[in-house]
Write a structure and sequence with these properties.
Length: 127
């Protein structure tokens, strides 16, 4: 595999990937409960780095973006704006890695609590 500098070699595709991912984050609500969203060009224009604090684990976000079920759920594939591969990143619950339109996208959460805990926190209890 050759080292591709996406920003230099395919700038339109490189920014399209960021647009698709950011739009999907908004449309799916995948980062509900998270805060301090940030993104930057990584590895000299070869990747996108997306980071947030709290909220869901990166693998949960990646699964939601790709429209794949979360671990343990029944598979139901459909058409989605973001397509790609998902794999765990370095760090057990803090990172995930996507490849969207051949551009690597690294997801990182600082102090994530997971989707189930986000919903427990956001859902008022009746008492």
């Amino acid at each position: 595999m050759t080292d591709v500098h996406h920003l230099r070699d395919h700038p339109a595709r490189y920014y399209e990937v960021l647009g698709r991912v950011m739009s999907a984050l908004r449309e799916t609500g995948a980062l509900n409960g998270g805060s301090h969203l940030d993104w930057w060009s990584g590895n000299g224009g070869r990747t996108w780095e997306i980071e947030w604090q709290g909220g869901p684990f990166p693998a949960e976000v990646a699964a939601r973006l790709l429209g794949t079920p979360e671990p343990g759920a029944v598979e139901d594939q459909g058409e989605h704006a973001v397509r790609g591969l998902i794999s765990p990143g370095r760090g057990e619950n803090e990172r995930a890695h996507l490849v969207v339109l051949d551009v690597p996208v690294n997801l990182r959460a600082i102090d994530p609590i997971g989707t189930s805990q986000v919903w427990a926190t956001l859902t008022p209890t009746q008492g």
